[in-house]
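Troubleshooting: if your tokenizer reports a length mismatch, compare your output against this known-good record of 296 residues.
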Amino acid sequence: NTKLKILNAKEFLENSKGEKKNIFLLCQSGNAYNNALKITLNNYLLNQNTIEINSEFILTKEKITEKLKSRILKDNNYDGLIVVSTENSTVNEIVNQYTLDNKPVVTLTTDLSRTNRQAYVGNDQVAAGSTAATLLTSLIKDKKGPILMIISQPFRCQQERELGFKKILRYDFPQIKIKETIQTTDTSEESYKHVKKYIKENGPPLGIYNITGGNLGVAEALKDTDSIDVNFIGHELNQNTQFLLNSNRMDYVIGHDVEYELKKSIELIENFYKNYKLENVKSNILIFNKHNCPNL
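Known-good structure output:
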């Protein structure tokens, strides 16, 4: 049995040696993150000749169509899958079919807990939420009152950020009450509508933690309700949040190294075909303000 396993492993390595890997990248997110990952992917591929990556970028509010599902599963013989997605039955089926066919799947930025994916690459999202709580409470200091938390349930990463944020406030800052509003499309239009409605009905909160997308909409709602002194923290450094930081309309952005994470995701798929055991890769949580915000 041992000899047979060694021979099979040797044959596996020989068959995959030197072949150009063909990977599919599926990204379902808000427009800003989609654009950032698309640029990162294009830049990465400029200097690569050992892999080929086909990709599809769709918005959070869009569904994975049967045509796209067929393209990922049947139309091309992909060697692996990198996926950023909401948790839904269609993506679960796609991921589990890949692993059933003994092909690697790596979840990027947000995990898919109900699948058989081989590895996750990204932040510890619970810790990212706790980091947001620490930053926001340092700005609020000893004030009493509510914090508005904007959430969107479809993504695992956002659920984990919410858990980390609430954990800190529940035990260390009982004088601060968390108020929630739910938006489901990761758009600035919806964030604007929810924040403006909340302030109109309740007055401005001490601070806002935006777990989801649509940071521009939050900032516009604060401006239009004369609430620009409200402390505001969100996620994902991109051109929108860079503008908000530099114009003093956002206090902190919690980010991550998208280039590093994409590179590691691709390496994991390549390592799968070298018969390496795949393990999760945790990236550093990055904190940006107007003083250390890089030019994008």
